[in-house]
């Protein structure tokens, strides 16, 4: 495992994200502890030492799970990254205390304001949380302070000029580089000499499942390399990128990622060109850029499985409307027509996806097939 030096400590370049752990239970809302522990053990065996969680991941179970999973390893063998979520509880003192209790630790290595957006940036800057976390840093309860970001470059610029940070975490992948604002965000952080932690390097799995034509385009340069490996190589090759997080749900994914990081090399000109061409093809095929982060789930008053419905939207848009007949087997209460267009999901969506528009369209298409 390659490492990077961050303020004198060694961090594994691959970080373990704990928001997509394997789940069990009727609604898939309980961490499958046995399977998830196997992943954590394998991550440690693979020399990963950066473990990222958040107050809201898996409805609060992720932090407690991580404590249990890492219990048998010395605390100085790994680094914990955790986040303050404004929407879950504005009381930052209480939230931090709960996090220490859940993690059964008396300090957090990397602490982030969670999901700073165009809407929330000013609140984060004004509500006193930054000064409070800075005081915790002086006490040694936080080692490094940063924020994760989902917003416009102007807002990022504002955040990095109005306060001092040790690092910033952004959504960075080749798709958002060419078709989003990731490149500009990256440049801003480089201009401010801020270490970059990367989230969504594979765009929530989208860049692992690319259209055949895009895959063929990449294979002309490296016939046996998998699409996810291309995505990981793209971000790790960027100077200034430190840890690349991957929310791994299976031991197979982890094994593949470990292999990728064992053989990291800078991208050649031909490889960069192949990525750009593949990206154009992917862009033409993408319907909704949902990353399946599930941030919206708990906010839907209709209890709709939004990421699943949006994934299905993409499937029938590329595979044909006939696929909608699958909805006949679904619980009627979970169908897209139940959306009341309240917009609460969009408010909590880092990608600003207008979910109700897609669900409305899906509902109309479904009824046109089944009048
Ligand atoms: S807009 Fe629709 S999908 Fe989104 S939260 Fe409201 S009811 Fe749920
Ligand atoms: S709609 Fe947005 S918030 Fe919901 S899962 Fe997709 S990307 Fe995440």
Features:
TIM Barrel; alpha/beta; two-stranded antiparallel ribbon; globular; about 375 residues
Task: Chart the SSEs and their pairings.
Blueprint lengths: L2 E4 L2 E4 L1 E4 L5 E2 L5 E2 L1 H13 L4 E3 L8 H10 L8 E6 L7 H12 L4 E9 L4 H6 L2 H11 L2 E8 L3 H10 L4 E5 L2 H6 L2 H10 L4 E4 L12 H8 L7 H10 L4 E6 L4 H12 L6 H17 L20 H14 L24 H4 L7 H15 L2
Parallel strand pairs: 3-6, 3-12, 6-7, 7-8, 8-9, 9-10, 10-11, 11-12
Antiparallel strand pairs: 1-2, 4-5
Helix pairs in contact: 1-2, 1-11, 2-3, 6-8, 9-12, 10-11, 13-15
Structure description:
Helices cover 43% and strands 15% of the residues. The protein has 371 residues and is of the alpha/beta class. It folds into 2 domains: 3-276, TIM Barrel, CATH 3.20.20; 297-369, no CATH class. The chain has an 8-stranded parallel barrel, surrounded by 5 helices. A two-stranded antiparallel ribbon has the order 1-2. A two-stranded antiparallel ribbon has the order 4-5. Strand 9 (142-149), helix 6 and strand 10 (167-171) form a beta-alpha-beta unit. Helix 1 packs across helix 2 (61-70), helix 2 (61-70) runs parallel beside helix 3 and helix 9 (212-219) packs antiparallel against helix 12. Bound molecules: iron/sulfur cluster (2 copies). Residues 290-296, 306-307, 310, 345, 348-349, 351, 353, 355 line the site of one iron/sulfur cluster.
